[in-house]
Amino acid sequence: MSAVETMTSRERVLAALRREPVDRTPLVNPTSVATVELMDLVDAPFPEANREPELMARLAMTGHTELGFDAVMPVFSIIQESSALGCKIQWEQKDNWPTVRMREPVYETVDDIRLPDGWIDHPDTQCVIQAIKILRRELGDEVAIIGKTMGPWSLAYHTFGVEPFLLLSLDDPKATAEVLRRLEQVTIDFGLAQIEAGVDALTLPDHATGDLVSGEYYKRYLQEMHAAFAEQLPVPLILHICGRTVDRMGYIAETGMAAFHFDSKNTPAESMAAVEGRISLVGNVNNPETLFAKGPEAVRAEVLANLEAGVQMIGPECAIPLQTPIESLRAISETVHAYHA
Amino acid sequence: MTVTIPGRRIELVPMDPHCGDISIALYARQNQGELAAPADGVELATPADGVELAAPGDGGELAVVWTFSRRPGAAERVKAVARSIAVLAGLEPVEGRPATLRFGCGDWHEAALRRAFLEACKLGPDGEPAVRPLEVHDRQTGQAIRAVHIGGGTYRVEASGIEESQTSRAPAVARGLAKLAQLDPGPDDVTVAFPCGARHDALVGLLLPRALNVRAVIREEEMQAARGVLSAPSARQE
Hints:
heterodimer; A: alpha/beta; TIM Barrel; 7-stranded parallel sheet; two-stranded antiparallel sheet; 14 helices; 48% helix; globular; B: alpha+beta; 5-stranded antiparallel sheet; 5 helices; 27% helix
């Protein structure tokens, strides 16, 4: 344990999201720390834990009870609202992630975008809402609860397919902007529903990833929209974009979002320099190599690099592989506590 | 944090089709002779009965088969996997610890053990584990491949039935064995040696068929490891 802890987990996370002083660096997981072993521990396996609120809440709780994170995140996947929009979902099995069948898109043109009536009441969106309520009831004010609402760029990938949407963004900027404008309502409505259910913060993944979308693209299509989300969704927002993103971190820092969840392809020090204290950072322990394969010693080294750089919240870079060993995940918490001891 | 982790995880089978898709893992821990933590209902296979984790500690490594599942049948399944490893790889069960094993040589052969665990998990409730022979037929070439212990934990790989147009498969199989079990190379290209200097016929018999096609083994392992890794939508290959 850290020497003196004067804040609850929830207070600590909320303070870090506001870039206020904390008693120790909070451990935050904005995406998912579910593993198959944790699923077994609480008998809440995928895919059911993505579709049944009690199981979703029970599995999310292990992030705090077994791994020592200061926040829990029940929305493990990135497909809940896409399922409600009518996308075909491959729910997979316990050892794999549910995915949208993007080769079978539900929209082809802007005019196809019609949000199904009552999509927010769809079982796969309501599962999230109910799980959040369960977590709030169980955890009270002690632990931060983070929800997740997908950004319009990610939703466009899911509903149009990656390739068609990227081609559209090259060929027809006006139509692209209109697609994003129409899909942003999903982001807002699902976010508001989770806020009403009791979340303290929302992760907003919007996969304008470093490999396919440039920093300038981010500025052109998304920066303004993300700034609007920060005004319309009255909880701290944590933007999540995978990949090398240091070229857009300056733009992201101007959106008014509370935090950016950054990938290990960006070093902690350069990322802190890029955002210049205008937004909190959370991350960025590497998943596939460090957490999954290398083990606790390598985890410690990456956690320390983040702490030394002044990263405000420590956690994995993205949703961890489902086979990640528990001892590697615990090393994150142990290292942070030892650092502050 | 409430759950006890039995050590350093070596290998994981995320879904065991023979027991309700529970995960089963192989852990390594040093034998310090410590008492197990009080049973909390989670530690099914080994400490649940409250007996010692192992015989008084000798500092050597122990292999622990483990599950975090509390589903009916999970504990029995874990014990069955441990029994299968003991037979297939020639490990010794630790007295009073039905899912804890150690190498009789006192050394630790992790790479070979990992593969023994994966093989053991393939055996269902009706599958009786048996020590595999030190000889295997190579379907690709028709050659008979044999591993012969020549003393001090060193094995020589021999091939027979080599047709005129063929070369011996023995050097390739020896390399395969060395890779799969992390063995030392011998003085020539057909001998490999266990660093401990002890005889391990069961392990060699288990790995010999796999040594015929190491690439396939590695590919299978890589595919298994890639499952459960979430990709961004833009990075997905459908």
